[in-house]
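Quick review question:
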């Protein structure tokens, strides 16, 4: 290809000149091509890999040089001699003579450069090449990556790094390529090549470690191998990127969310010091945005635009605090360098004025931001203040336009509603006019327009006691805090805020502060009317989620009076149903009802909904999906933390298996299900303020407090009792709530009650002992555990699928597991590189195991060619499409693993009749076949019971018994009589299929002859059958005669042996008419069966001699009807005596069919080349089966045993070489040279 001219100082180094003229030189790289260039070639090849010069060095290049200059310019390079020769010849024909005209060398150089750049521009224009930010070097590295590993264009390289790969005890220096879906390594040292490809989705462990010999190592583990990489220039960057890509792959396995590149990134500046790929910039931006959102609890679609160092003036202590300002689309945030000193969130919807103040020595580059609640924030020491103000102004403009648009859409909102602040909402009268009320249901059901706790607080005005006094003091402390630090979302959040939270939030302020600290207030403010719309849309809808919700409604805090009547239950139903409707991926999960009921006690209905959104989608990610993956991940994190912080207890707890039992219920319900209610809400207070670390700290504190009792426990039951008694004794002495009976005290035994534990002391103790746990460390641990948990789930899925199917097929368990891996990998390929259907339609983790992965017809074609014995290269696709349609019972253009295995099972383990039946069905029109159940694909109505049954059986003979039981539960096999007849056009397609199936078989010639005989015979049968059907309909007065004669014929021909030997008094002798039928088929014209045409038999054929195939009235109805006995009289698959005679055929035909004669027109077997199809012509399956059985070559072909293991191994190897992605886990490393 032509390249933008670049100067080259040493033209001869490492290159050999092959052609030259006064202006241009064509060179070849040493070590490339035949012979390899000896030792010099090996050294050059090694240098190219180690120094990355091969990423930009094609093996051929053309240099330009003026005669008197020492500087060369590279103007073209090529990967093949043909490509570079084309460029060379173009230069000789078009430029050489023109250049001789110029007198000045500078003019020649300018002309050549301009010409080459013009060619490149023209090429880009004609081929619609889009400009991107990637540098030329990176593009060349991408091209090399795709070439080395056989990746398609869709596989995007993110970055590549120099490193060593340890093959055994030998390090191989080379390059590590990280793409969206794969980790690849390539090395070429002194003639030895190493290639490694690992799919991110197959990685079970990814860790950075250090040893004495190797200070920096990245270890990549899969199910079968472990790979070690070292000697990185920047190991932290490499590891972070690898983590991010593995996370994306896990996310894809979990909920099928693939990677989509963000095209809205700003362009790189021309003088940017570090050139990275657009994808790498995208991933870096995503990682920063994720950290930013987590730090300030912002909505999940918020993108960070940039951040800068600055100072913030804090009026409460009259100081300039050093920290960082973050600016995103809808927020300006600040956090101090000293983590807990101060943080601030300013939504742009609250901003009224942004202005640049005058600079001074004391306050350089100040920026003042004012908000609607009359707060002003003063930032200073901003490096690029003008640019920052411009960005904020742009975002402000977008925000105001959004607000105006929302007002126009909702109509009901007025400006005063928009400006209702938290100040008014903290007022004791929760039914004030400042808040919007709405009725979400019909008038017959009361609606919760305020927090349920306010309705059911049993407090008389004159009642006053020490607890209430303490509560009143707490309220005053918070009001003083608001007066000093501001109120609402723009409040300064400091160490003092945390102290107040740890002392307990007052009952009356709990809902509002939960909303504020969780960030749910932002989503609620930016989505006015959203909840009402959801409730309206979701009410009256019924699905699995709503059924589960109804079942659990009365189990949610049943001890609380708020949920002992219809108002509380209805509010809970609305919130849960609305969320299930909003997020069908989660729908509803047990434990959501307990958490939501507590939210409803302290927050209004709409607020409770947004708090639930914040919990499920941001604060407890993946906790409430069908597999509670998030809770399992955090359970693993908790185990790691326990090993680190309570090591003396860890081994004991692992032996008892207690950690996994306790942590799931503790995490899923935030201790609400295991602690007295009034104590558990204090935990929820801290959780909304400080996030998941609070739950870990508290769980560790509980273990630490019971360390001696737990060490003395002998089993898990005893340990659970110890922990249950302890948690039951946790009390909140400050609570003003009436005592609520605690149902979980049933866990305790009848021994002495545990001494009371104060919740505030427990929380404070957890901060003192385990407060060093950092959020970023938790995220790091979560990544490691997520890999383990999701891969364990995938393995469990595979085992369950195999257990379910193993009784229905003859494949072994190992074979099924291998096939499942190939099937799943084919699904993943389409997710990576696109397919004809949407991946989200093909993978739904909420479905039963067998349905989770499905493939479409394009993926099926690939597997068909590799695994199915009928595949034969060029002619396979049409057959694969037919096969796919047959397997796709529900017509959704997708097949699951069970359907796939049932089809493959017939071809690999089925008998001759089953295989032929399958082939026959493939050619029946879909409309006729729709109601016909394919017996091997039928699903047992007891499928779920069977799965449970399998899990309980441990005897070695279980598979035998299950097979017997499976046979009993299956519906009876369909009768071959139920199969529709094949019409003429379908028969033509069947003939084409048969001919194409044998195109690459070793017995190709013999199979062609056999096929010609069978197809010609079937053609004649169809013709005779047509005559019989037309004659029977036209001669109604001879009905009795027509019915009696066939029955006589059937009696005469009941025994195949006697029939085959019959002479003129029977029907025909073997071979009498075979040649005639074939000839009739091949001549494409009506042909009578004349006597004496056979090669061996010369006997006369009285019943057939006068019949002409195209005649409308047969001479002998009895005989022709005898040819169709099976239509009405055949009782089963083996009753085919009359056909044994007819289809015996002749193997010694006058006109032998040669291999080269088999062309597209020949497979029509005697049918005229016209568009007219004979609608009356038809054959049955029995006729087809009987005809095939007479040809030994075809019988051998269809009965040939299939080497399943060899096919699976071959499929894996082909995928490794052809499309690396589809290996079972990772490629074997090939060393050549």
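Suggested answer, residue by residue:
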């Amino acid at each position: 290809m032509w390249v933008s001219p670049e100067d080259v100082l040493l033209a001869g180094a490492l290159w050999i000149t092959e052609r030259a003229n006064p202006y241009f030189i064509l060179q070849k790289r040493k070590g490339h091509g035949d012979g390899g260039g000896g030792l010099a070639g090996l050294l050059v090849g090694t240098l190219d890999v180690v120094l990355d010069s091969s990423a930009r060095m094609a093996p051929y290049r053309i240099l330009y040089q003026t005669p008197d200059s020492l500087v060369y310019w590279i103007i073209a390079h090529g990967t093949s001699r043909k490509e570079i020769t084309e460029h060379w010849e173009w230069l000789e024909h078009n430029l050489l003579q023109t250049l001789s005209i110029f007198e000045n060398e500078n003019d020649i150089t300018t002309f050549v450069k301009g010409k080459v750049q013009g060619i490149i521009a023209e090429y880009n224009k004609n081929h619609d090449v889009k400009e991107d930010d990637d540098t030329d070097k990176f593009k060349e590295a991408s091209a090399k990556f795709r070439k080395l590993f056989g990746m398609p264009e869709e596989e995007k390289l993110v970055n590549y790094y120099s490193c060593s790969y340890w093959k055994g005890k030998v390090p191989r220096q080379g390059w590590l390529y990280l793409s969206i879906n794969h980790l690849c390594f390539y090395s070429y040292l002194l003639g030895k090549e190493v290639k490694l490809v690992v799919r991110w989705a197959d990685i079970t462990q990814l860790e950075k470690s250090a040893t004495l010999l190797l200070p920096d190592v990245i270890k990549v583990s899969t199910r079968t191998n472990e790979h070690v990489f070292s000697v990185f220039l920047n190991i932290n960057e490499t590891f972070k990127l690898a983590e991010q890509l593995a996370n994306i792959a896990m996310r894809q396995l979990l909920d099928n969310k693939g990677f989509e590149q963000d095209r809205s990134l700003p362009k790189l500046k021309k003088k940017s010091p570090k050139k990275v790929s657009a994808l790498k910039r995208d991933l870096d931006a995503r990682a920063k945005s994720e950290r930013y959102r987590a730090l300030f609890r912002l909505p999940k679609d918020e993108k960070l635009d940039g951040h800068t160092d600055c100072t913030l003036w804090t009026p409460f202590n009259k100081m300039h605090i050093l920290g960082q300002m973050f600016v995103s689309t809808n927020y300006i945030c600040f956090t101090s360098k000293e983590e807990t000193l101060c943080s601030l969130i300013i939504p742009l919807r609250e901003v009224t004025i942004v202005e640049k103040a005058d600079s001074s020595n004391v306050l350089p580059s100040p920026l003042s931001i004012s908000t609607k609640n009359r707060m002003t924030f003063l930032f200073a020491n901003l490096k690029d203040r003008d640019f920052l103000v411009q960005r904020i102004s742009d975002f402000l403009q977008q925000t105001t336009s959004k607000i105006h648009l929302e007002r126009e859409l909702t109509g009901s909102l007025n400006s005063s509603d928009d400006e209702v602040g938290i100040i008014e909402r903290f007022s004791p009268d929760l039914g004030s006019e400042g808040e919007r009320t709405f009725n979400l249901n019909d008038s017959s059901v009361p609606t919760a327009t305020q927090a349920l706790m306010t309705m059911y607080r049993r407090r008389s005005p004159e009642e006053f006691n020490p607890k209430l006094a303490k509560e009143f003091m707490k309220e005053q402390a918070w009001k003083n805090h608001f007066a000093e630090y501001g109120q609402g979302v723009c409040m300064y959040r400091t160490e003092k805020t945390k102290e107040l939270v740890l002392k307990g939030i007052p009952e009356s302020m709990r809902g509002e502060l939960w909303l504020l600290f969780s960030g749910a207030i932002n989503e609620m403010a930016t989505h006015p009317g959203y909840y009402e719309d959801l409730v309206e849309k979701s009410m009256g809808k019924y699905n699995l989620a709503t059924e589960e919700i109804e079942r659990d409604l009365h189990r949610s805090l049943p001890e609380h009076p708020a949920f002992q009547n219809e108002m509380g239950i209805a509010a809970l139903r609305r919130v849960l149903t609305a969320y299930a409707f909003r997020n069908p991926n989660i729908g509803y999960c047990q434990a959501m009802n307990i958490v939501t009921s507590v939210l409803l006690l302290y927050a209004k209905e709409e607020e409770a909904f947004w708090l639930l959104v914040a919990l499920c989608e941001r604060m407890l990610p993946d906790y409430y999906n069908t597999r509670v993956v998030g809770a399992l991940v955090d359970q693993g994190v908790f185990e790691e933390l326990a090993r680190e912080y309570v090591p003396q207890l860890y081994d004991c707890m692992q032996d008892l298996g207690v950690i996994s039992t306790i942590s799931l219920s503790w995490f899923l319900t935030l201790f609400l299900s295991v602690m007295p209610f009034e104590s558990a809400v204090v935990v929820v207070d801290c959780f909304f303020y400080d996030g998941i670390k609070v739950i870990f700290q508290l769980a560790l504190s509980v273990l630490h407090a019971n360390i001696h009792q737990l060490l003395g426990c002998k089993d898990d039951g005893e340990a659970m009792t110890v922990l249950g008694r302890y948690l039951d004794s946790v009390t909140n002495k400050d609570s003003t709530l009436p005592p609520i009976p605690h149902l979980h005290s049933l866990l305790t035994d009848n021994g002495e009650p545990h001494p009371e534990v104060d919740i505030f002391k427990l929380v404070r103790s957890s901060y003192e002992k385990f407060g060093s746990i950092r959020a970023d460390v938790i995220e790091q641990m979560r990544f490691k555990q997520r890999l383990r948990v999701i891969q364990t789930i995938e393995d469990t899925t595979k085992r369950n699928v195999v257990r379910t199917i193993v009784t229905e097929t003859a494949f072994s368990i190992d074979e099924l597991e291998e096939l499942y891996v190939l099937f799943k990998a084919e699904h993943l390929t389409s997710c990576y590189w696109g397919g004809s259907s949407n991946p989200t339609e093909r993978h739904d983790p909420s479905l039963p195991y067998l349905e989770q992965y499905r493939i479409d017809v394009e993926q099926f074609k690939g597997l068909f060619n590799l695994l199915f014995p009928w595949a034969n290269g060029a002619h396979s696709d049409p057959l694969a499409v037919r096969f796919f349609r047959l397997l796709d019972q529900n017509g959704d253009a997708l097949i699951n693993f069970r359907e796939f295995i049932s089809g493959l099972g017939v071809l690999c383990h089925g008998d001759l009749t089953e295989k032929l039946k399958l082939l026959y069905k493939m050619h029946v029109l879909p409309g006729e076949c729709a109601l016909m159940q394919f017996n091997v694909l039928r699903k047992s109505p007891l499928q779920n019971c069977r799965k449970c049954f399998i899990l309980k059986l441990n005897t070695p003979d279980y598979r035998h018994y299950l097979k017997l039981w499976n046979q009993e539960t299956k519906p009876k096999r369909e009768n071959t009589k139920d199969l529709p007849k094949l019409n003429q056009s379908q028969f033509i397609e069947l003939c084409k299929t048969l001919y194409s199936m044998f195109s690459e078989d070793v017995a190709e010639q013999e199979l062609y002859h056999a096929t010609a005989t069978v197809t010609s015979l079937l053609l004649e049968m169809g013709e005779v059958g047509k005559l019989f059907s037309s004659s029977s309909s036209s001669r109604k007065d001879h009905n009795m005669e027509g019915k009696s004669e066939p029955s006589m014929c059937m009696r005469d021909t009941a025994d195949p042996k006697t029939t085959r030997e019959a002479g003129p008094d029977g029907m025909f002798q073997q071979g009498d008419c075979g040649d005639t039928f074939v000839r009739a088929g091949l001549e494409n014209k009506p042909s009578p069966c004349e006597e004496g045409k056979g090669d061996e038999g010369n006997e006369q054929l009285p019943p057939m001699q006068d019949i002409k195939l195209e005649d409308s009235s047969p001479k002998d109805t009895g005989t022709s009807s005898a040819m169709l006995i099976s239509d009405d009289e055949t009782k089963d698959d083996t009753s085919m005596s009359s056909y044994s005679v007819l289809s015996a055929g002749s193997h010694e035909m006058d006109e032998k069919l040669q291999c080269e004669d088999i062309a597209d027109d020949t497979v029509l077997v005697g049918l005229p080349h016209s568009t007219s199809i004979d609608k009356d012509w038809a054959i049955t399956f029995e006729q087809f089966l009987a005809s095939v059985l007479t040809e030994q070559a075809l019988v051998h072909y269809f009965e040939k045993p299939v080497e399943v293991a060899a096919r699976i191994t071959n499929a894996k190897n082909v995928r490794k070489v052809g499309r690396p992605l589809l290996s079972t886990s990772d490629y074997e490393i090939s060393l050549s040279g």
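Why it works: The chain has a mean pLDDT of 75. The longest strand covers residues 157-167.
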